[in-house]
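note to self — DONT lose this again. spent like an hour looking for the file last time. sequence + predicted structure for the chain T wanted, 397 res
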Amino acid sequence: MSANDFLREYRGSGPLRDITVLDFTQMMMGPVATQLLGDLGAVVIKVERPVSGEWERSYMPRGRRLHGESPYFLAMNRNKLAITADLTKAEDRTFLLELVARCDVVVENFRPGVMDRLGFSYEELLKHNPKLVYASGSGFGPKGPLVKRPGQDMLLQSMSGLAANSGSADGPPVPLAAPILDASTAFLLAFSIVSSVLDARENGTPHRVEASLLGTSLMIQCQEALVSMNTDLTWERSSSGIAAPWTDAPYGIYRTSDGYIAMSMTPRARLATIFDLPAALVDGTDDQWFERRDEVNAILVAKLQTRTTEDWLSMLTNEGMWVAPVQSVSEMVRHPQVEANGYVEEIEVPGGQRVRAVGLPFGLSGVDRANRLPVPTIGQHDDIVRKELARTAVVGD
């Protein structure tokens, strides 16, 4: 089998089917980014440590495995071939450099400087592939006083203001339970990679892509950041439970007689009619309305506890208010709306078993399902990749 035939055999039918990715990533940010590329048809070759594999294989919810693997690893490593290599060994470094010549993209999310020390710097890899897209993900970006610090989702939520802006005035800052920065940086990394590959293909231009949790945290807060940098406006967290410091009531999670309901922004006049608010609260300027937001919210808190969640959802939805039930992840993944859009599907895992997982989070013509290749075991494709791709690699072959 020729190298091209080998690659063709493992490509999907999506729009990235002509792209080959060498994937050195671990944990969440990098693997989610490369899984998205694989979902859209790219050949993704995942490089792991011999024997133990990448870190996520040993990170499990309360120590529990699913069909012999970490459920977390299963969630973000479908549509990949798996090989092993020890980057400290000369023979393995040679093998990987031969693969670089065959690939369009190299992706890594080690701390800045690690790949350079191992002989896999951007400049070095360009010698083996002058059209290469070299993508790096990190906590704080490639330079600056914090570049050597460990970057992790919750730490960056705390440093960036995301946690400080969440929670009530009399409580501590509250980071989001989900790794929102890891996931969002993965999306930005994938987007930047695809954009760079387009230029490399059309113009022969190599690119170095650098995404970070820090940069993502600022992008997520672009509205608040601009105001903070250009005005003297400041905010304090609400004492009555409003979910964002800069938002009027209602905005947040409210207790009902039997549970909770989420309510978002509502025009003053409509709010006054529905909840019979005193005219003194409704009249006045926007600043005055904002300054009395906790008074308004306290009235809403009291009134919402007098009826059930279902009663409020029905009535407020009919009134055109932005409301939603407060659900668990278990409830959401089984919701008819999720099923209707195909956001959850079965994927194959080692041993031929199948599990339900989040598939493509968007629709794309020509790509019906994310699941194409099973989640691989450690080094599952070592023999065939070494046989079919290495030692015959020629750029553009």
